[in-house]
Structure formats: C-alpha cells, structure tokens
Amino acid sequence: xxxxxxxxxxxxxxxxxxxxxxxxxxxxxxxxxxxxxxxxxxxxxxxxxxxxxxxxxxxxxxxxxxxxxxxxxxxxxxxxxxxxxxxxxxxxxxxxxxxxxxxxxxxxxxxxxxxxxxxxxxxxxxxxxxxxxxxxxxxxxxxxxxxxxxxxxxxxxxxxxxxxxxxxxxxxxxxxxxxxxxxxxxxxxxxxxxxxxxxxxxxxxxxxxxxxxxxxxxxxxxxxxxxxxxxxxxxxxxxxxxxxxxxxxxxxxxxxxxxxxxxxxxxxxxxxxxxxxxxxxxxxxxxxxxxxxxxxxxxxxxxxxxxxxxxxxxxxxxxxxxxxxxxxxxxxxxxxxxxxxxxxxx
Amino acid sequence: xxxxxxxxxxxxxxxxxxxxxxxxxxxxxxxxxxxxxxxxxxxxxxxxxxxxxxxxxxxxxxxxxxxxxxxxxxxxxxxxxxxxxxxxxxxxxxxxxxxxxxxxxxxxxxxxxxxxxxxxxxxxxxxxxxxxxxxxxxxxxxxxxxxxxxxxxxxxxxxxxxxxxxxxxxxxxxxxxxxxxxxxxxxxxxxxxxxxxxxxxxxxxxxxxxxxxxxxxxxxxxxxxxxxxxxxxxxxxxxxxxxxxxxxxxxxxxxxxxxxxxxxxxxxxxxxxxxxxxxxxxxxxxxxxxxxxxxxxxxxxxxxxxxxxxxxxxxxxxxxxxxxxxxxxxxxxxxxxxxxxxxxxxxxxxxxxxxxxxxxxxxxxxxxxxxxxxxxxxxxxxxxxxxxxxxxxxxxxxxxxxxxxxxxxxxxxxxxxxxxxxxxxxxxxxxxxxxxxxxxxxxxxxxxxxxxxxxxxxxxxxxxxxxxxxxxxxxxxxxxxxxxxxxxxxxxxxxxxxxxxxxxxxxxxxxxxxxxxxxxxxxxxxxxxxxxxxxxxxxxxxxxxxxxxxx
Amino acid sequence: xxxxxxxxxxxxxxxxxxxxxxxxxxxxxxxxxxxxxxxxxxxxxxxxxxxxxxxxxxxxxxxxxxxxxxxxxxxxxxxxxxxxxxxxxxxxxxxxxxxxxxxxxxxxxxxxxxxxxxxxxxxxxxxxxxxxxxxxxxxxxxxxxxxxxxxxxxxxxxxxxxxxxxxxxxxxxxxxxxxxxxxxxxxxxxxxxxxxxxxxxxxxxxxxxxxxxxxxxxxxxxxxxxxxxxxxxxxxxxxxxxxxxxxxxxxxxxxxxxxxxxxxxxxxxxxxxxxxxxxxxxxxxxxxxxxxxxxxxxxxxxxxxxxxxxxxxxxxxxxxxxxxx
Lengths: 346, 551, 325
What we know:
The structure holds three protein chains of three kinds. Chain A is α/β, with parallel strands linked by helices. Chain A has helices at 3-23, 47-53, 65-74, 92-97, 137-142, 172-184, 193-202, 211-218, 235-243, 273-283, 286-289, 292-296, 309-314, 326-345, and strands at 31-35, 57-61, 83-88, 101-102, 124-136, 163-166, 206-208, 228-232, 250-252, 258-267, 299-300. Chain A is built from 14 helices and eleven strands. In chain A, helix 6 packs across helix 7 (193-202). The longest helix of chain A is centred in the N-terminal third of the chain and has 21 residues, at 3-23. Helix content of chain B is 72%, strand content 0%. Chain C has helices spanning 41-49, 91-101, 106-119, 135-147, 165-182, 193-199, 217-222, 227-232, and strands at 3-12, 15-25, 30-34, 56-61, 64-65, 76-79, 153-157, 185-190, 202-207, 210-215, 238-240, 249-253, 259-261, 267-277, 280-287, 290-296, 307-312, 318-323. The radius of gyration of chain C is 24 Å and the shape is elongated. Classes of the chains: A alpha/beta, B mainly alpha, C alpha+beta. Chains A and B meet through helix 1, strand 2, helix 3, helix 8 and helix 9 of A and helix 1, helix 5, helix 10, helix 14 and helix 16 of B.
C-alpha cells in the first residue's frame, strides 16, 4: 500500500473516531434505555414520552437479558445508558448486589400488585409472564397421550423422552423452570428437586441451550421429537396470532409454572437521574403498559390496564405460579445451577 | 542468489515504509483487539488489582473444564482435518476445470458462512435428526458437530486453496507425469508440497473457527460436548464469574497462540512462481476427468446444497399450509402486528451497509498487514502473523465485553455504530491476510525490478505490479470479509447496539417468538440473506477475473 | 552516454561474484560482456542497473557518480533474460509502462508504444496478453519496452538465451539494427561467443568475477592473452609454441585449416580420431603429449591409429600466451 493510501486510512480512521465521538451523547436531554433483544414496543410509543417531556429516548439493545445485565455491571462506573429495562427476578439480585440501581418509586406504583414489588423500590416491575410447560395438542394426540397436569406426571414413564427443557445456565425460561421445580420439591425435603431431576433425566428429558432451540428444533410442532416444551403461558395466544389460527395448537400445563417479572431501574452512574425516573414512570403508565402484551407477550404490571382480546381469549392462567424472592434466588442460583449441571452431565 | 543483495526485490517500502506498514495494522489491532482483551482479562483475573493465581489452578484442576479443553482441541483437529479432506477435491475441480455454473457454484460455497446456526440446525435435523428423512439420527453426537463445521468452513478450503491452485503452473505436474509418476504420486510429490502454504493457511483458519466454535456446539452439542468458547459464555452469563471466564480466555489464547506459532514454524515462505492465466481452465476432457469432476461436484452439492435446498423449500411452505410466498410477504406484514419484528428492508440495508464498511476496513488493514508480513524481517513477520490471527481465536464474549470496558478512552466508542463493522473486521482481517500473503510473497521479483529499470520508484512499482497481481487474492479475502460481516453474530451480540437490527438479529428476533408465521418468516429471511450474500460474492468473484488481454 | 565502473566488488556471503572490476564504456558503443555462467556477468549488469548493491567501487554515468542512485532514477534500461513482461498488462501497456512512469500523457504514450511495436515488427499485437505470444515475440516486446523510455544505456541480459537456435541469428541482427536506430549505448551480456562477436564494438571477458580481457573482437581474437580467453572465444586448437617454430614456453592457436598433409611434413603424429563432415575430414592428431585438430581435404590421408606427417603454416598461428622465463 502506498504512503497515500496509508495516510488515507489513518485519516479515515481518525474521522471515524471523531464522528463516533460526536454521536455519543453529551447533551443532557437525551435518555438512553438499555434493554435486551426481545424488547419491543409499537412504533411511536416512546415518542409519547418525548412529546411529554421534550427528551428523546435512544434505545440500545444488548443481547439477551444475562448479557445486558453483565454489560450494565461492567460499565457501572461510566454507564452506557440511563435506564435499564428487562432484568427479570432471576437476575435481579445480581443487579442489586452490584449496586446497579438508584431506587425510585414510580408514580403509578400503587397500580402494581404487591407481589411483584421489591423492597425499597430499587427496581420497578414493568411486566410479568409465566413460564410453563407447553404441549403440542396434535403431537400428544398422535402418541395417544393425555396432556400432563402436574410436575409429577412428567416423570411418569408414559412421558419418557417427551419433554424438552432449556439449560438453566444459559436460558432464562430454563432457569425459571428449574426454580419452579425447586419450589415444588424444595431443598431439604425427602424427595427434593435433585431427586426429581434425576428422575426426569431417567425419563429421557432433553436439554436445549435456549428457548429458540427447544421450541424450533426439539418441539414436535417444529418437526422435533418432544411434544412437551418449557415455554410461556402466553405462547398459545402468540401461536394463534402469528399462525393466523382460530384455535391454539398448543396448551399449557397450569401446574409447575414460574412467574418471571421484568424490572426497570435507574442506572446508578447516570447524570440524569430525574429524567431517568420520568422514563420509568412512563414505562409504568397506561400508554406503555397497554402496548406491552401484544409486543412482548407478557402481562402488564399495571393491574388497571385491560388485556387485549386475543391475549385474554387464548391465555391459560396458571394455578399458583411460583414467585420466588429475588434474595433467595440470588443466594442460591449459582449453587442450584451447578448442582443441576452436575446431575445433567452424569 | 541474485536477490540476496537485491535493492528492489525484497522490500518495496524501504525501512521506514515497512515501519509504517506494520504500525497501522498494529495500532488498529492494538486498540480494537489487544487493549480491550487485556482490559477485560485483567479485570477478571485481578479484580482487586493483583492477580490471584488460585483461580488459575482451580480451573486447571477442574476435571470438567479439563474435559471441555480436551474436547475443544479434539473436535477442532478433527474438524480441520475433515474440512481440508472434503474441500481439497473441490478446490482442485474449481481450480483446474471449467464447467457450466462454475462461478455460481463457487459463490454458493460461501453462502453457509452467513447462515444463523439455528436455521442451519433445523435443516440438519430435517436430514439427520430424530425424525430426519435419512433415518439416521446423529443428534448429540460428535459427528453432527463435525458435519456442521465442515458445512460452515468448506468454502475456506475450496476458495482459499483453489485460488492458489488455479495459478500453479500445470507443467510441473505434467513434468512429474512424464518422469513416470502416477497421478497419486504426482499429487503427493509435486502438487501437495506446492500447495502446502495455502493448505497451511486455510487449515489455520478452519482450526481457529472450529476451536472457538460457539453456535454450532451450543445447538448441536449437549452438556457433555462443550467448547472453551461456550464455557466462557456460560461462566460469564450464568454466573458472572469473570475470574473463571478470564482464566479460560487466557487458556484459549495460549492454546490458539501455541497452535499459531507451531503453524508459523511449519509454514515456509515458499516463493512459488505463479503462472498468470488469462484464460479460464479447460473443460474436463477425458471420461475419467468428467467422472472425477461430477463426483466431486455431486458430493459438495449434497453436503452444501441439500441443507440450503431444504431451507429454500421450507421458506415456501406457508404457515397456513400449501406452497407459496406467504413467508416472504409476512416479513413485511409482521412488523405491523408487533414491533418485535424488524422491517426487513431496514435490516437488509443495515447488514449490507455494515458489511461494506467492514470489508473496506478489513481490506485496508489486511492488505497492509499482508505487506508487512511479506516484506519485513522473518522474526518480526512471524510474531506479527500470530498477532493478526489472534482475534479469530479469541472468545467473542471476551472481545465484546472488552470493548465495553475499554473503549471509553480516549473517546467513548462503546455505543458507537462503528464498533459493529470493526468487530466484524477483526474476524475478517485474518482472512484477508491469509488469502493475500501467499500470493504477495510469490510475485516474481524480476517483475518489480523490471518496473524499477523502467523508471518506477519502489512504491509505484509495488502499486502497479504487485498490487494488481495480488488483487484477485485480495478480492477473495474481500468476499470472505463481506460474508463474515453479513452473518456475524459473535462479538456484536455482546456490545450495546442501536435498536435497528441487522439481518441475523432480525432472524434471531423472529425465532424468539412462538408461531408458524415468525418461524416461516425467519427461514424466508435466511433465504434472502443467502441470496444477497451469493450475489455479492458472485460480483466480487467477477471482479477478481483477470482483465488484461482476456481472450 | 559514457559509463565508468571503478573497483566494483560484489560478494554474496563468502562468494565473490564481482571482484575489483574497472570498466569504461564510451558513448554510442555496443559493448558485450562475455563469460561462462557464474562468472559474474549478470551481477555486473544488475550493479549497473542499480538492482544489486556493491561492496566497494563507484559507478559513474556521464561523469556523474550514480553509485547511490536508485534504479528507477538511473537512465538505464534493462532487458531481462526471462523478459519479465507484466502478465497483468497487455503488450501495449507493457511497452508504454516506462513512458507512464516518466509521466507521458496517456494518448501520447500509446502512440509511442504503438510506434515501437511497429518497429519491432509486432504491429497489431498491442491488445494481446504477453503469455499468448511466442518466445521470439515476447523477446521483441521486451526489447520495445526497454527502449520505449529512451534510456541512454541499454543493458541486455542474455536476450536470446531462452530462444531456439534457429531464431537467434535473425533476432540478433534485428536487435542490433533496432539498437542502431536508437543510437544508444548498449551492453550485451552473453555466454555465447558468436553473439558477442556479432554484436560488439568492444567486449570484456569475465572469469570468476574478474575482467580478464577488454578489447575489440579483432584485438582479442588476434591477441587473446591467456589460454582462458582463447578458449572462451573459441580458439580450441592450442599447441605449444615450439611446434610452429616459435621460441619460449606457452601456447599458440592454430586455425585447423592452416595445416597441410605432406610426407615430408615437419611434424608427425598419430591419428586418434577422424570426423567426416560436410565433405571434409577433420583429424585429431596426437603428438608429444598434445593434440591438434587438422582440417584437410576430402580424401582421408591414412587410417585411424596410423602415423601421419604434416606442416602448419606458422604465419597463421596466433600467440595466445608467452610465458617469460
């Protein structure tokens, strides 16, 4: 390469650096929202916030929920965003332990059931969903099997090799399902969750690395071998909506569910604390809350917001989903995952 | 003997020029690779400011991690061997023969490169899954991982070795035949040794790709088949155990570095004088040649074509049943139902834009690095060679999180758009370097001397003689760079991006929703990705055709 | 243009390729450098072109010191033995390359390159790729390319070396007349004495990196000065001086045709070999520890192994070397 080209390359590089430097916000009136790849709101929803406050919102997506929270922790001293949304209760303690949030009591917090809230309002619940076993109605019919009703059914040898779960180390529904089993068969019980999982593995449970793999390769709906899959209670309405169907092709096992709650929080390093607080208030307002179900297939945390028709018509509400205290999860998560992994590998 | 003291042949840049040529890629890789990686590993290993060696020993002693390390190496060696074995016959066919559809098939070999693992996985499972049409179920076995690695990396061998092979003068082989060597002896004693630099180069790339394999292993492997790369990700995401993750990252770097040093020793800088061919190779003439060509093409067609064909077929199966284009039209209507789905045109625009930027960046840096490798002193060149290749062997988690904690100095680039093409370019640069360096070292020094005696200063001589002669190799590297960027889902997954997605991210989002429509749309978008990549590669392939005196 | 080499030495490691060479070439001269392979003649050429570094010595062109001048600045053109045609350029682009480097504007240089192609008899070949040309055609392209930028000094490194013998004679004449048309100074490196004699106004003979003889072909032929030079220029019929009645030790060259068979001849030897070719018997005769070749008439004088008497015309003998005692 010639001297000219080399100089040109250097120059180009310098320009890029400079340009990049300029795009980075230094204006105090922009709020950056860090979220995971599954985040979605209808177009224009966030504009309502800008109309109200005059502050534009920039959304940055950061991979899955686990990656996102790690990013927030790694950049705590010089944050890349003002508000984070999408930390669920399985990861919440990691955020709190790392002092990631500035507590904030949202203006509409009274509309949120107490069950979803956490002590001191370090983070604000925005939505929740239930992780449940889904079954493929046609797949079970083909095998002449009834739909399983309880966790105990799953270790029945009729369901040998019929269930696919996600690895709790790499998937949040996977971890949610593990927590549901731990709630049902707690540590210290005569028949504890470890014994249950040994039975599950003896019964041929299949492990996928994430939800997409489980749902789109192993599940019989996608041509796989397992008619039972760990998914969401809201998956059947999504199947109806996105499959242009009138009836759901899948059903939900209402026992053994786990309630995943997603939180938003003000990142502790932000120089724009009050604007960040306003954005969290906005996320809990009816404008956003009503938009959440059909975009993210979860329930709004604000209990005063009505559910869309297609959502309520095809959704099965689980019986007593497990809601576990983030502190308990935080204290035990690693141990539980490690023990699970040991069982899975043996 | 003459060039020992040659004033022109050895180095067209002069001492200072070479320093600049080394300095630019070093600065770029130093800032965008070494600095972030060192920052994140240091943070992981020394959270309190000093390094605690006990973690290292714990990791080294952990039997399950030992198993992971052993499996990582073992599958990478096997994958490399299989890919080279499968790719060489095809490289030969593409280098030595012309046949209908040659350029299209050549371009098609690069297409798997861009496909998301889950999409490829579904195609594989349709063939060799529990309900696969072949009746053979390979799920959870090493075989399916190896097959997937061959599928993904086939093009590296076919195109990398093929370009080199195309330019070897066939008269060497003819000479061997007339001296009584059989076809096999000729291949073993003449062709193979001459191809060695190209084979070594491509093997190194395939090895690094397999060694750091993530998506394939995660999808097709199971808990007992895991790579260091997957383990780094698990340790970071699931446990935020930066110490363990960093230790593993260091071990991975040491492993990769060792392999690269060994490979550098083995790789001689042989200056094979290339024959410049302006005319395309001949059609297979004898029955034997025809049989060989069709066998090889049939096999690669099966290996690459079948999974891709399944995807095209699937994209035409409509959510409501029947055959049609509903999945393609859904791509445009789904975003109206939920903002979770991206506008496909926007995603295509983003992807192509990033790919063009990444390719240009990789070409600039890669060509300079190649020049530095070709013309600097041997020891410097060797060390530099390893350095340039390292990003390919480094965990995407490490690079991605490294960006995040390091690149706020001197200006905050952490959320800048340019990080995306740069992250892509880091993976692409080794490809440009590997495809370009063998040719750059092989340009006859007489040509540059002739240019000098005709009044060209060393740089002009290099620009007007060497550069056009290696241009075709550079374009091969460019095609790789483009494809890598189109499909890359590694380090970019770990940096904070603007909400507007690329094609792979749009596919990933579609696959994050239950329902026949999102799945069908994901497959349709994958087919579009295949199409765009195929066409772009075809265009770049046509650019690499010689122009002078084409008959 | 004149060239002066003073005390040029080039070594590669322990091997001395060119040793203390002094050489002056005058303006307009056609100069040949002749020597066996490995004698350093190509290295010498590369030194003049500025392609190879010297250990010692100076190179001046027109009395200007060019020892440190880079190759591309020297007013020197070099035609490589393998032609080194740029494979990625057309014939015309190859020929125009030097003009392009000199900054000649595109249309002008195409026109000039076209003229040169006409001159070397390759009109209409401009658009072809070099590899599609025959060896002789490539040689002429290389010559045209070398001459295009009008160098003051043209160096030709074994220009006919890779060609068929049948082509060489014609091409040599052509090359000579083309160079004459350009009126440039030229240096022609070859191992072939025929080419050197046919080409050169003056020539140098190299042995192991040393110049052992410089002179006009005529001078050198009539006074080789050493057995090496004599053999290098094709004087193989060397016999001790006393056979032709000259005093002193040393050898002299006798043209094979200068002998005549005669029963009363002063010399006697045994016929070792008899070659009959083109109607002429060529005898190899052994006498007194030496052998001599004699061309005689169409009638064989005697059988192999028999003795024969003959005379050598002493006026035809050339002194090769006189060893003073």
